[in-house]
Amino acid sequence: MRTHPPCPRLGQHHRATERRDLCSRRSLQALTQAASKLWVPNTDFDVAANWSQNRTPCAGGAVEFPADKMVSVLVREGHAVSDMLLPLDGELVLASGAGFGVSDVGSHLDCGRGEPAVFRDSDRFSWHDPHLWRSGDEAPGLFFVDAERVPCRHDDVFFPPSASFRVGLGPGASPVRVRSISALGRTFTRDEDLAAFLASRAGRLRFHGPGALSVGPEDCADPSGCVCGNAEAQPWICAALLQPLGGRCPQAACHSALRPQGQCCDLCGAVVLLTHGPAFDLERYRARILDTFLGLPQYQGLQVAVSKVPRSSRLREADTEIQVVLVETGPETGGAGRLARALLADVAENGEALGVLEATMRESGAHVWGSSAAGLAGGVAAALLLALLVLLVAPPLLRRAGRLRWRRHEEAAPAGAPLGFHNPVFDVKASEELPLPRPLSLVPKAAVDSTSHSYFVNPLFAGAEAEA
């Protein structure tokens, strides 16, 4: 079974505090299968990414906070500044040993320009942005579809107590609901307590926007897992995820790309869908894939996401199914399809013991080795093949047509005929020796056939299907 990283000892780097936050609730999560999501960004004074020049204010420099932005800023160190413009509503939280002193303008070489260091907009961090969360269940080879990178309704959410932060709750179209929230040393499991905190000054400095945030003790007690519950919020999740890309998905590097449930953009790989019975255990099956399959050399470079999702087709009794997404991250291709077929074979052999009733798979098509250089090289190669084809086919066609005639270069041209030039390609003797061109196929059969496949395995009839 996959195990969590050990809890850190006291005195380690502040990231160890994040791990302790996750460790503190691990025993409870083991009983309820709740996952942990940790908020990553902060509004600390001493973090270079929080400043307009991507560096903390230098000694003797001017500091400016946007006047109309509420913000709570944690200061860990001492700083000497020449001038500081504070916001109309905010707070500076001084850690032990931190403080501010006055220094002459330009006492540091980097401050010679006199441009103030401006604190970046603290409202830029959105709850729905998958980039801003880290899962407590991270493991090599494991990833989560985009909608599940944001806290799900059964998740425990942690905001690091050792850092300041500010979170935008979105437009309010889809209320945010999770199992619990830990912030500022408190854990909120009741809506009444959380609402009182959000209405306080400390809460308003850290959470903003029209979106609603609530908690509820909705434990996921089903061993087969629970649906994330972020389907309604997925448009906002995808908008936040793709905002740095101009709102558009990058082109998938394969034909017939797949888009699993919960994913914002197409991807290359394979998707296996499992119909499960009451004996199915999601965590055990995820660990089986990670430990039994992904450790094999032929599956290096693959990543897997395993979760319960609503069944896309309502033609069958079950309203949920298990989605296994396999993605290729390395230069090798075809590994996702091979692993998907291996999982189907595993279901055919061990489906009853795993609690899997049936399995199907979909696989993306051949990879597209596309780039400007590759496209140019492909175009040149195609042009050369076309030219070669013309040179091979044209002489016999011209010879058969009988409408055009050429002479050997030693024959005399009729009087008054224009003189031409010698082209060895159209030499009569050479042309007569050339065999008739055979039909050429420039596209391999595998490339023209469909490369998106679907398979079905029912363990009740596994023997017959395996023989087939």
Automatic annotation (TrEMBL):
Annotated signal peptide: none
Record's bilayer topology term: Single-pass type I membrane protein
Top-level taxon in the UniProt lineage: Eukaryota
Transmembrane segments: 376-398
An annotated GO BP: receptor-mediated endocytosis
Keywords: Cell membrane, Membrane, Protein transport, Signal, Transmembrane, Transmembrane helix, Transport
Annotated GO CC locations: apical plasma membrane; endocytic vesicle; extracellular space; microvillus membrane; receptor complex
Pfam families, per the entry: Amnionless (PF14828)
GO molecular function, one term: signaling receptor binding
Subcellular location: Cell membrane
Main location: membrane
Protein name: Protein amnionless
Species of provenance: Pongo abelii
